[in-house]
Amino acid sequence: MSNFEQQKEKFQTQTGFIAALDQSGGSTPKALQLYGLADSAWTSEAEMYDLVHAMRARIITSPAFNGTRILAAILFEMTMDREVEGRPTADYLWNVKKVVPILKVDKGLADDTNGVQLMKPMPDLDKLLARAKAKGIFGTKMRSVIQQAHQAGIQAVVDQQFEVASQIIKAGLVPIIEPEIDIKCPDKAAAENLLKTALKVGLDQLPEGQLVMLKLTLPEVDNLYADLIKHPRVLKVVALSGGYPRDEANKRLARQHGMVASFSRALTEGLTAQQSATEFNQALDTAIESICQASKT
After folding, report:
1. Do 154 and 96 belong together in one domain?
2. Could you give the angle at the alpha carbon of 130 between the alpha carbons of 111 and 10, nearest 5°?
3. I need a surface site. Which of 23, 145, 175, 193 has the fewest CB within 10 A?
4. Could you give the angle at which helices 125-134 and 151-170 cross, rounded to 10 degrees?
5. d(Cα 167, Cα 253) in Å, to the nearest integer?
6. Same domain, 149 and 212
7. Catalytic positions, please?
């Protein structure tokens, strides 16, 4: 069985969650600040990225971080191109930790139109996908944001996501479609209903044999996405923490049957550069275990 088939089977048969370690240029300073490093800790963008890679490598190499509880890890492009303990990051994740490597491919968000932010153009996506495939990446992630319950805006988000997903599937990878609904959306429940309807149509139109994953904001109505979780074109439905503190995100997630976490900030909450190895590994183990348990429901 190829690595790709083994990784697909892991998603289909094992419990666990996705660790989102894909903070990019705009969110990296905030991630480092939460990790206990002030802006004065770096003097250039290169130093900033060295620091965030060191943080990610510390997480990935921790004894608490392995394929028993973690299905996959989402990487920033620069992380994919770097090494962990002398091995390419994706190779280390799969062959040492048995964690499936996934790559964030979007280039950030466009300006707000109709209450949503579409993805910026990705003119070099085919080249990036080819590099990712060669490095052993299984799938991709791309994020749009919905701020208002605006039907035309939400439809535009879903149309763009499925259009790019088709390109990713042709490259031999499994796309994670992520139309995030801002937790501050004034009519979040209505936006979720509009999104669910649009996603169902998009999934129904996928050719037989094609698979996607969905990464969605934790909904206001429990088990709203049950039909999508059971859809034959869906490999997994995962939840983003969306700014909820870990305890709140875990409580909401535990009420969603069949949905598992894909947490970023909620995963690294409480981890700092100043912790000893023992303190760091214990804090990470506690976080992973709590998220894993919430993902099992």
Report:
1. no
2. 90
3. 193
4. 50
5. 31
6. yes
7. 178, 215
